[in-house]
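Practice set, problem 2.
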Amino acid sequence: MDESNLDTKKPSSRRWQFSIAAMLGLMTVAALCAGVFVWLPKPPDNRAYPAKGRVTLKDGTPIQAGWIELVTVDLRLASIGEIKDGEFELSTYGHNDGCPPGEYIVIVGDTVPPAHERYASLDLSPLREDVKSKTENKFDIKLDPAE
C-alpha cells in the first residue's frame, strides 16, 4: 500500500491555521459589536406628542395668518405649523401629529398683522418652549408688533 495516499487524507496544517484564524477573527468582531451595542446611549424619545397653541400680539390681537416653526436647540429637528385665526397645530412626521419632547427655539414669520422681524430669525428669536412627553402641549405665544 502506498503511504503517500494516506497523508493526503489528513487535514493540512494550512487549512487548520486558516480555520483557527477565521474563527478568532469572527469571535473578535462579534465581541466588538456586542460591546458597542451595550455602550450605545438609548435613542431619544422621537415620538410626537400633541402640540398646539395660540399666537397673538402683546396687546391680545390674534395673528390671523402666518407660520410657526419649533427647532430643537441642537438644530437637529423641526416641527412646523400654519397659523390661522391665531391658532396653530404642529406637525413633525405627519399632519398635525405634534412634536417630540425637548427644548425648542420658536420662530414665527409672514404674520398678519405683522410682528417684529426678529421672530422670523433662528438666531434672533427670543422665544423658547419646552415640549413634554406623554401630555398635550399648549403654548401661548405673544409677539411684539412690527416697528
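Problem 2, part (b): a different protein.
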Amino acid sequence: DAMSFVTNYAELTKQSPEVPVPTYPANGATGVSVDAVLMWEHDGIASADTYDLEWSLIGSLTGSVHKVSGIGAKACNIAGLPIGATVYWHVKAVNAYGNSAWSAVKSFVTTADTLIYSDPEELTFSMAADDATPDKKSLTVFTGQDMSEEWTVTVNGDWMTATPASGTFADAKVFTVEVSVSPLGLIVGENYVGAVVVALASGSSQIAIPVYLKVTEPVGGGDGGDGGSTDLLPPSLVSPADGQGGLDMEPYLIWSAATNATSYVVQVGRDSAFTMISVNYEVTATQYLPPALEKGVTYYWRVKSINSGGVSAWSTTRWFALNPQGDDAASKCFLEVLFD
C-alpha cells in the first residue's frame, strides 16, 4: 500500500528555531584560556536571528548565572574567566517565532597559568564572494616559558586552513602560523566566525584566536552577464514568468541547472537594484520557496551559480507581485511525496 507524506515547507520555516549544538571548546577540555571563545553550530529549516548564552561556575547553571543576549554570530568571546575554574555553559537560538530549548550543558577548565599567546589576538578578513584566490594572514604564537613541548594547530571553520599543523617549543619560543581563508560557496552578506586553536600536547594550555570573515558582493556584481567566473554561467530563470502578478502565495522560484554548478545563491528583493534584500540563500537544488513574503508587494529575484572554481555573474532579473488579498487558507503550498 502507498503511504502519502504531506508537508508544508512554507509553514515549517515559520516556527521557533531548532536547538544549537556547542562545538568549541570540546566538552571537558582543559587548559582553555581565561579569555575563551565559545562556538556552536546551528542547522534546520527555521533560521535563528540571534542567540542567547549562559555560563556559570555551577554545573546546574543555577545561582550566579552570567547571561549574554542578542549574539549575532555562532560564537561569543567570554573574557576574564577565573583561573583554574570549571566553566559550564549552554546556548539557545532566537527568532521572530520564539526560542529554541537550551542546548546540552557543556564544560571546560581554564588554564591555571597562561603559557602561550598570539599576536595579533584576532584576525579579520573581508572578501568578495567570487574571489578565487585565498587571502592569507600570519599569526605569531609565542611563550615566555622555557619548555620542550609539542604543540598542535587546528581550525574551527571549514572555510579556512592553518599551517603548520604541529611543531615543538624545544628550540624556539616563537613560531608563525599562516591562516588562509576562502569565500567560495559562502553566502554574500554573511559574517562568518571561526577560530585557530593552538594547544600544547600535554593539555596544560590552549588558546583560540578568533577569525572573522565578511563575505561581500562579487566584484563583477550587476544584474546581467558581466563579472563572475568566465568558466561558470548563470542559470536561466524558469518560473514564475517575468512580471507575473496577482499571486495568492509565495511561488516556488525555479531555474535551469547550470553546467558544472554545485550550488546556487538566490536573492529576492523589493527593488531591481537589490538594495533592499529580503532573501539571500544558498541551495543545491534548482528551486527555492522563499518564506514569509509580504502580501501586496512586488518582488525581484535572481540566481547565480557556484562551484569550487568560483561564482558566476547573476542571472537576468525577474519580478512577481503577491495579491494583497491572498487567502492564507487557500494558498498553502504542499509537497506530496509518495512512498511505495
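Answer key, part (b): DSSP finds one helix and 29 strands in the chain. Confidence is low (pLDDT under 50) at residues 1-10, 221-227, 327-340.
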